[in-house]
Amino acid sequence: MNTPTIETQRLILRKFTQEDLEAIYEIYSDEEVNRFLPWFPLKNREEAALFFRERYAAKYAEPQAYAYAICLKEDNYPIGYIKVDLEEHHDFGYGLRKEFWHRGIVTEAGNAVIAQVQKDGLPFITATHDRNNPRSGGVMRNVGMKYQYSYEEQWQPKDILVTFRMYQLNLDGKDDRVYRKYWENSAVRFIETDL
Question: What is the pTM for the complete model shown?
Fold first, then answer.
């Protein structure tokens, strides 16, 4: 099972491999692409190799993982990533090189990955975005996720205070379920009504 390859109309979603280090560097070194992500942009190819080993190879060693390179069918070269964690929050995350923004690529990839995790029995997914990055919330809404609440967190390792918006999509018909751990762990939490 592990990480099944998925094809959509325009995309191949597959595992990252050792041969993708240059692509990983291109995706994860761009400051604008990584501005709202929890890690610092990669500085060199050596960091890309370490990132691949820690973030991808380690996940692929597990019995099941949803951590994909987003590739256009025309060249099968990674231009972004998309993932769903198997930890209790089932966090859905993504990133895309900026020259491919505004083409519906992440929405297309997201719909395909969500269909796969639903087929495999995952009960729900969550996703969070920095309130200063509303376009990410647009992707979440485009794949059917619903806003639940907002909360503050001192984000590490960047050590900045961020207000996150938490979205959720229940995949098993239990529509009233809300993942509450972020709410419970934050001293500052609220529901925005003007979204």
Answer: 0.94
